[in-house]
Amino acid sequence: QLDLLWTRKQNVMYNLFDWPTQKHSKLIILAIANTMDLPERIMMNRVASRLVCPSIRLLFKIWDSSNIVHSSIALLFCGQKIPLQTCHAYFQVAALSGDARRCLDICRRATEICELASQKRTAEIVRMAHVTEAIDEMFSSPFINAIRNASLHEQIFLKAILAEFRRAGVEEATVQQVYHQHIALCRIEGMQSPTISEIMAVCSRLGACRLLLVESSNKYLHMRVRLNVSQDDVVYALKDE
Fold first, then answer.
1. Which residue ranges does the record assign to the Cdc6 C-terminal domain (predicted)?
2. What per-residue confidence (pLDDT) applies to 70?
């Protein structure tokens, strides 16, 4: 996944795309990215120049997680009529997480919980209570508790990171980029924007809690940050905020 191999000097990407250009090389590189214009968006010229060898870009249609979940449910029930409440419960899961794999994990666990309950009592269908229990299991972690107990500006900073990731299509950003998103969120909420020093303190605390991975650098605003938890975990932890 090319987005995750980005570094400031881009040495990893350069070496990766340089291998196929070597004499007698039989290597073919298949790279996946969230954006079609990733080479133009983030690649330095020296890296982009490695793409002069024959290269093809394929655009894959975006899959809707609810469609994937619905198809999987149909297979799970072997073509039987699916109870309405079960459909509703699973689509709630699809709406909660954009990651289809996470959705399917929750669906599978909800089905297991239902089967265990059926062994003790009469057989029953998968209900919202089973899905809720599966979600609580899946999203119960010290990190989620830390996010829920974080200060208001720490929570807004995490939201700002998600917003910047969505804007750039890359799961890494500078503190300055996140700061701009943070200010925009504060304006929407009618809150006073924090100062640079306050933002740096927020970033430091989140890094100390291991919610963020913060690059070590003297250029504070240009430090790069990444989430140390999944985006789904952050969304779930802040869904009531």
1. 158-238
2. 62
